[in-house]
Amino acid sequence: MSAFFLFFHVSRLADGYVDAHPAVQQVFQETRQELYGSMSWKERNEMFLRRHSDSLPHRVAAARVLWTMGDQVRAQNVIVETNLTQTTAAHCVKAHHVLKLWGSEQTSTFAKACHERFPHAEAFAC
Q1: What is the DSSP string of 44-104?
Q2: What is the pLDDT of residues 73-119, one digit of tens each?
Q3: Neighbours of 60 (CB within 10 A)
Q4: Is pTM beyond 0.85 here?
Q5: CA torsion angle 57 74 103 52 (round to 10)
């Protein structure tokens, strides 16, 4: 589990998104404060996206957080708007799979962009 997903789950517990005993929530609140200060999961996710703006795997991870927290449209856009020049076909396949799982209307648009970048990849053959 990445450090960001740990932060995300700790934040969900600390903020009461997940049912937990009040003592457990207090421990998570204190731990989050020690590790991350007063940053919310949204601020942390935005910082993560800025730091990894050209990395498709990182953008998919951030998009999954957005999707989980209810911002499905932004989650899809975070993946689709990625600059594909610095990525691999394998990363495109994984991102495409996530969009398909979500039933995204942008799946075909993303597949076309991946096909342009990787014309010999069978996963994106038209």
Answers
A1: HHHHHHHHTTT-HHHHHHHHHHHHHTT-HHHHHHHHHT--GGG--HHHHHHHHHHHHHTT-
A2: 999 999 999 999 999 999 999 999 999 999 999 999 999 999 999 99
A3: 19
A4: no
A5: 0
Tokens 């207090």 found at = 26
CA angle (31, 33, 14) in 5-degree steps: 65
Residues in the chain: 126
| Whole-angstrom distance, CA of residue 101 vs CA of residue 125 | 19
Amino acid at the residue 88: T
Model confidence pLDDT, tens digit, residues 29-66 = 787 778 777 777 788 889 999 999 999 999 999 999 89
